[in-house]
Design a protein that fits this description.
Blueprint (H helix, E strand, L loop, with lengths): L2 E5 L5 H11 L3 E6 L2 H12 L5 E5 L5 H15 L4 E4 L14 H29 L2 E8 L10 H20 L5 E8 L12 H13 L4
Parallel strand pairs: 1-2, 1-4, 2-3, 4-5, 5-6
Helix pairs in contact: 1-6, 4-5
Length: 209
């Protein structure tokens, strides 16, 4: 049985991805800060017949993220795919925003992803195999005066993903980012978790070249 790790697990895109890959036969490992919330998500997925485990970890804290990944690898081994999905937002006018809030969002969108890749990419390159995916946002393409912290974080994340893509060029390690340019909700025809999960599944099946 293959393994898929979802970092930043919640009830939206990550849950849709867990459902899709779980029903395709993959074991699902969830990472997020809130352990009680993780337990609820795992229980719901298990009720759908999906094999799930979880570990609490804060992506903004390098040691916390590493500990969560180690907990999962000790039980389930190396993941066939890791999805980096955390996000944080501060809905404030740009002139009311403080730099500490921006740094907090950068720690989530960029710092956590950077640390994750430093932890896992060397082994994936050694194996010459693996899928490392990211959920991006439309704000990475255009700044917003009320969502500045998130848009800055997503823009920097997009740039960092592209840098890692160039790092693995010519290998069988697949790094990709899905830019979601809309508000994710179950009733939206395009921007619903199930539809977005299908895009990640297609990326997962995509052959080199």
């Amino acid at each position: 049985m293959g393994l898929v790790i979802i970092i930043g697990a919640g009830t939206g895109i990550s849950y849709g991805v867990a459902q899709k890959f779980g029903k395709e036969g993959y074991r699902i490992a969830l990472i997020a800060r809130n352990e009680s919330r993780l337990k609820e998500l795992a229980t719901a997925l298990q009720q759908e017949g999906i094999d799930v485990l979880y570990a609490a970890g804060d992506v903004a804290q390098e040691d916390s993220l590493r500990h969560a990944l180690n907990q999962i690898s000790e039980v389930a081994g190396v993941a066939d795919m890791i999805l980096y999905n955390p996000s944080g937002a501060s809905n404030k006018d740009i002139l009311d925003l403080d730099w500490e809030t921006i740094k907090d969002m950068l720690d989530i969108s960029v710092g956590g992803y950077f640390n994750l890749m430093k932890m896992v990419l060397p082994s994936y390159l050694q194996q010459n195999h693996g899928k490392l995916f990211v959920t991006g946002g439309g704000l990475s393409l255009s700044g917003d005066p009320r969502m500045t912290a998130l848009s800055m974080g997503k823009a920097a994340q997009r740039n960092l993903v592209q840098a890692f893509q160039k790092k693995v060029d010519g290998t069988n390690v697949h790094i990709a980012q899905v830019i979601v340019r809309g508000y994710v909700q179950p009733t939206d025809e395009k921007y619903n978790p199930t539809a977005i999960a299908e895009i990640f599944w297609k990326l997962f099946l995509q052959q080199p070249g």
